[in-house]
């Protein structure tokens, strides 16, 4: 009881640390665009206007902004804009109170004249909603660490995760990353709970459905959530091979095959823009995202070779300070005072050479210890998460943008936590608990 109370207080302090910085985090142009997109919440839930939410080619003639809105719906997830839409609705605001889309390539004064900067009230309440999602992910990371290596692992995992500058910066802003963080770790936690019971034949339908729903929400948060889902599926099958649970693999195998169908159903139900032509969107979305990445790489400077990618990956994971903006525009001049206040607040997290060395050392020790931990199922989920994220981020990220490395930072934090476990001498057993 005392340990649980202390753990609750500890996680509560970390959550307060996350929330305390929401107000002071510097502005990003993507916040304007995503809040502009949150008008879809009112269109869907207040007006039921499916016609203006579905994808149309050519765009609708009665909406001059329909083409731009459709492009944004193709490229982005939906969970965050629904959460922000619900937030400003509950606070008495309407779609007419929203800002316009950010104009990239134009200065701050032009965007102000265009009405692209959110009001202080709108930005504040939506950042709090974003911060709450990130705060919930802190609690889930604590739970993931607990299942992987015990209470010491949980404490260290949650601390490192909360102190990562990239997690704090992107998780506090009113962007997509907070939803991706929350539902990614939710999927991993559900998989840890389910992996042994799924193949053991107990509550197969229940746990398979929970994984499918969590996966659908993760991918609906941001399309890169498919990386986490792929890791979970791989872990489920690899666990069955390791533990030789062949006696009940027929029943459980059917359930696992149904998981992607459940995930697809949840994703499709949330993405109204897909309803008019889902088969077209299956091919159009990856193509559009690749075109976006290519355009960003050409405009802002891409990695020259695979060695540069490896250096960039290591830097973002172990040593990078917060990246306040990616644009070549003069954002330092525009938001320099906001950056100074944020860094003076003491709420930025930890960075620097000493912190980098500590994280790297813990990560190396955690990897070595992972193979000796008794909780085979829970650890296997984390390791497959790390592997899938490492390969995907390394291969698919063409430029040094910090937020693109968040899918990898999450499992790295858990592996660091496994450097210190509940028992220092642990050996894997033939019939390990999940």
Structure description:
Helix 1 runs parallel beside helix 8 (151-163), helix 7 (120-149) runs antiparallel to helix 8 (151-163) and helix 10 (177-200) packs parallel to helix 12 (226-243). The chain is built from 19 helices and no strands. It is mainly α. It has one domain (2-417). The two termini are 23 Å apart. It has helices at 2-20, 29-37, 39-46, 66-75, 79-90, 108-114, 120-149, 151-163, 165-172, 177-200, 204-221, 226-243, 249-270, 278-300, 306-318, 331-344, 353-370, 376-396, 406-417. The relative contact order is 0.13. Helices cover 69% and strands 0% of the residues.
* Helical residues, percent: 55-70%
The whole-number mean of residue pLDDT values reads: 90
Sheet-strand content, in percent, reads: under 5%
Low-confidence stretches: 424-434
Count all strands and give the number: 0
Structural class: mainly alpha
Radius of gyration: 22 Å
Largest beta sheet, briefly? none
Shape call: globular
Distance between the termini: 23 Å
Query: How many discrete domains?
Result: 1
> H/E series, N to C?
HHHHHHHHHHHHHHHHHHH
Number of helices: 19
Describe the secondary-structure layout:
Elements: H1 2-20, H2 29-37, H3 39-46, H4 66-75, H5 79-90, H6 108-114, H7 120-149, H8 151-163, H9 165-172, H10 177-200, H11 204-221, H12 226-243, H13 249-270, H14 278-300, H15 306-318, H16 331-344, H17 353-370, H18 376-396, H19 406-417
Helix pairs in contact: 1-7, 1-8, 3-5, 5-7, 7-8, 7-9, 7-10, 7-18, 8-19, 9-10, 10-11, 10-12, 10-18, 11-13, 12-18, 17-19, 18-19
Which features would summarize this protein structure in a list?
single chain, mainly alpha, 434 residues, globular, 19 helices, disordered C terminus
